[in-house]
Amino acid sequence: MRKVRRSMGLVAIAASATMILAACGGNESSSEETAAEAATEEAVVAEETVEEAPAEGGGEALRVTYIPKNLGNPYFDAIVKGFNEAAPGLNMTVEVVAPAQAGATDQIPFIDAAIQQQVDAIAISPNDLDALCPSLKRAMEAGITVLTVNGDTAPDCREASITPVDFSQLGRYLVDLTAEVTGGEGEWAFLSATSTAPDQNSWLEAAAEYISSGESPAGLTLVDTVYGDDQPDKSATEAQALLTKYPDLAAINAPTTVGIAAAAQVLSQSPRKGQVQVTGLGTPNQMREFIKDGTVQKFALWDPALQGTIAANLIVGLQNGSIVAGEDVAFEVPGVGERIMAGADRLIIAGPPQEFDASNIDDFDF
Ligand code: RAM
């Protein structure tokens, strides 16, 4: 039987917090700048916009840096919204900085800049399982709380990881979702994010295991996996290329909000609309028009905001000592409920998964 230890619960330090989205407009750094210089400049720009949170009840505001995979993806805006929703009860400022592209090493300069600034905590949605580890370990050695959010690194590179759903089940779910929208017959392909994305790769690996186990729907054949790098244009080009390469394609499954929206856009204007199904993981706001015009029957996700809310509260608890990171430690998130750092890897599931179709797409706004 698993033993769950209970921590004291989260104690909100003071009344107010200021959350800052220091998005840098998606501009790439000029060729004269090193990535580190660019990161430092962006961080400085962010710092200039940070308002001091009123520290009622004493104590300096906690300084948190959140590093999404890349800029310009509304999915990560939703996670920032979650940080914002937690803010009123927490004495915290959050700077959001990220690279323009989601390359394996592109976040390193931003981690290093946060270490230099001696922030209290770094939350990161990682673009690689291992490449960020030396920097993240340096951050922890400097006394900075490090959390991964929405995807993970190797477990010894962070204190805990917040994932939206149980990743071990998602690969299987994506195959079954493809079967549902195709009637269980035909060729299909994955249109993923970057080839190093730890979240998507874990789902793709689990899907491959499910398929090779012989338990997956027998009429489906996975013919290809391509990568749109979470860039709308590249994702659209890859979707178009799949249509050309596979004249009998029955479905594109894009387990990325950028990829599914791009594939749906391509299919909505294609004579093969209706013949080729698009499904996967998307935000309701980006996918609404494609559900309404019949391009897409069904897709899934979760509310990304919850991960930001849990991260903000967990950071406070880890910083004030009311929560100690460890195996099977339960903690209470005000307004959300109990969550558990499960197992030796300290994985926290935000939940819940949600399916969207014509019957409920208008009930969601993110
Ligand atoms: C994209 C990103 C993100 C992933 C979602 C489903 O927005 O790749 O990491 O979790 O899709």
Descriptive tags:
single chain, 366 residues, alpha/beta, Rossmann fold, 2 domains, four-stranded parallel β-sheet, 10 helices, 35% helix, disordered N terminus, binds alpha-L-rhamnopyranose
Short description:
With 366 residues, the chain is α/β, with parallel strands linked by helices. 35% of the residues lie in helices and 20% in strands.
Description of the molecule:
The protein has 366 residues and is of the alpha/beta class. Helix content is 35%, strand content 20%. The protein folds into two domains: 2-165 and 304-353, Response regulator (Rossmann fold); 167-301, Rossmann fold (3-Layer(aba) Sandwich). Helix 3 packs parallel to helix 4 (133-141), helix 5 crosses helix 6 and helix 7 crosses helix 8. The chain is elongated and about 60 Å long. The two termini are 38 Å apart.
What is the secondary structure topology, with strand pairs?
Layout (H helix, E strand, L loop, with lengths): L4 E2 L11 E3 L14 H15 L12 E6 L6 H13 L5 E5 L11 H9 L4 E4 L8 H9 L3 E5 L10 E4 L3 H16 L3 E7 L5 H15 L7 E8 L4 H14 L3 E6 L2 H12 L8 E4 L3 H9 L5 E4 L3 H16 L8 E5 L3 E5 L5 E3 L4 E4 L9
Parallel strand pairs: 1-13, 2-4, 3-4, 3-5, 5-6, 6-7, 7-15, 8-9, 8-10, 10-11
Antiparallel strand pairs: 12-16, 13-14
